[in-house]
Amino acid sequence: MTRHVASVELDRLLDLARDIALEAAEFAAEARRGGVEVAATKSTPTDIVTAVDRDTESLIRERILAARPDDGILGEEGAERFGTSGLTWVVDPIDGTVNFLYGAPSWAVSIAVVEEPAEPSSWRALVGIVVNPSNGEVYEARAGGGARLGSTALHVTTGVPLGRALVGTGFGYAAEVRREQAAVLLALLPQVRDVRRNGSAALELCGVAAGRLDAFYEHGLSPWDHAAAALIVREAGARVGGARGGAEGAELVLAAAPGLYEELESALAAAGAWA
Ligand code: IPD
Ligand code: CA
User: Fold this and answer.
1) N or C: which end of the chain has fewer CB within 10 A?
2) Is 57 touching ligand 1 by the criterion CB < 6 Å?
């Protein structure tokens, strides 16, 4: 059941999430300067985790528990804790781990607080923060309070037809999933201005919020990839949803201004995106 969270509590949550994300970003960036190696592989040989992903998630978890011991936590590197407050922190310590490994500047710390259930199709995101330590950009939003990049209010592009849309997307780690994603892309690419793939779904969704992309879609994302950034792009004016008119989730995360959203949704359906 959705409980009412007062505006002042949202502000406090956002302040705390920002403090934790900035500390985690500094920690991970400092560790990166010392060099990084693959610690293990996850779902496939190319789905990697570094010790820094794990250590950064541990730091975030410690900070959350110290400040809000009754909240739940859901993290990419295994942090899972059921809380009693009705609120869950959804954490991606490093989104764009492959970029992080290669020293490419597109990776981010992503933290959201959602009202349970901790499942994207039914949660209500309350606050979201995405920090790119490589350029110091801090994207944030709170439910009903708009989205910002630093102190600048964010707004998605509007009035862009599909044929002139710059569309961000991404690919999963499993070969068979990629084959399907490539087939969809093959059909979509001739219909749009161009496509970008930067390797961090969180930053690409924030890119839509900032008007650097007109739209973003990806099949197969995990909740921590999009929890914070979906709120940010929604608060910047995007429609955000998933497959067959439903909520965003593992099948599809789609974000764009209304109008372009529906055009892209139809094009993806026609390309067999959720056949
Ligand atoms: C990945 C990134 C990437 C997306 C993948 C995600 P990770 O997250 O967001 O852009 O295409 O689907 O898994 O593994 O770097 O945390
Ligand atoms: Ca991720």
Assistant:
1) N
2) no
